[in-house]
Specification:
0% strand, 299 residues, Serine Threonine Protein Phosphatase 5, Tetratricopeptide repeat
Length: 299
Amino acid sequence: MGDGESPRINYVGITPGETEEQSRTVRTSTLQMLSAELFGTKVVPRLIIVLFLGDFLFKGGDTMVIIDELKSVQRFNNSTKAAHFHKTGVGEYQHGDVFWDIPLASIRKIIKSHYQDVSYDDIETLLASEVHEVRLSGFLILTELMNCLNEKQKPRLVGFYLEHLDQCNGWDLVDLSAPAILGTYILIVNESGVLDVLAKSENLWHRRVAIVSTLKLIRNKDLDPTYRIVKILLQDREDLIHKACGWMLREAGKQNRNRLNRFLQKYYNQIPRTTLRYAIEKHEISERLAIMKGNFREV
């Protein structure tokens, strides 16, 4: 698949009347299939795909209403504040992005009124916008739908999310969508291999999706994927990845402090300093000082 080429994938449905084991097998294979078609990885060849969902789950038609409502609460166009938090300068990771400086609470309030009335085509229109907050509204709609769809409908939404991952090109877009969508689905299917694929991507935002998605797993006491993905990203050069890895390690440490400390000691010489600082923010100050110096005997 060439650079910039938009892949088209078939979404996986579940046939009515199948057993829970059969259903889980298909759902588990869904992520393997999606990662293969989107990112060129190998998958288990034995998979029967049954398409039973129509083109639309919802009636659609609210796109312009949503955009108009967002416009009505915009404060500035490309504000200095947005430029500071999102690095929009020449050569920076979000150069050229357009900001309306809309509070997150206002965006959530707007999409709460419309998310049940939009189609996937509507969401695709929102995600294609040059305006950051309009794209964010599209991803927030997907997170709302993820909460209300049944397990037979969720694979299609996850497929749609992965297909449009290139539009998830901001730390807030990633952080507000990845755990709720991809993290939730991984919990359902108990298959996290797609995270390894994303973690090895050349795309900064794909890599951030990989690690931040594990937040949902951490909160459900599944720490293994977090440590596995952090190890893949130890040599990453991007500060946004260093911060995200440190954040997830800190969250994992809330579940098991000893495991975190053992990991930090083992990989101390490889862990970026930013990651290390973020990871130990909840430690006592004396422990933080010791760990930053590589002294784990006092921890």
